[in-house]
Amino acid sequence: MIPAVHFDGETRYLSTPDEVSESLDTVLRPGVGDENHVIATWLVYNDEKTQAPVSFLDVCANLEKGLGGVVWFAGGEEAARIEKETGSDMGHYFWVSDSGTLLDPDPEVLSDHYAPSYFDPRGVISIEAIRNAVESFCRSNGKRPSGIGWVAGNQNGTRFD
Question: How many helices (H) and strands (E) does the chain have?
Fold first, then answer.
């Protein structure tokens, strides 16, 4: 399994934990993106020749506020594996980070710069929690990161509840 990051129109494969950390530093440095709003996707592929990722983790952040949100999704084969191993249909949904508490009533975390649409405020977490989630995702070969809460939702950061 090979992790990668898609940011600023480019996909870059990440070979080591240091490269994962460097990718986070690049994406989450203030002054990057439109008015400090950034969107990046970390992916895990079976190999560099595969077009479809095993799973992905979308990250949206408002660097001015130090907050952001995360969406995890498993590809078709991974969703089927999860269902077979656990009996759960969790691989068939987008999963949105859940902060457990409202960190900011108006966090202004853009989930789509073109719409524009915003992350549900209940799903907004700290930049440190985002870093930990990305590192966990890459270390675990694309499994849904532990250490944060999750709720079923949509890729744009909205929730079903």
Answer: 3, 10
Q: What is the pLDDT of residues 81-93, one digit of tens each?
A: 777 777 777 667 7
pTM over 0.85: yes
What is the predicted pLDDT for the residue at 90?
67
From first CA to last CA, the distance across the chain in angstroms is 33
H helix runs in 15-57, sequence order: 17-27
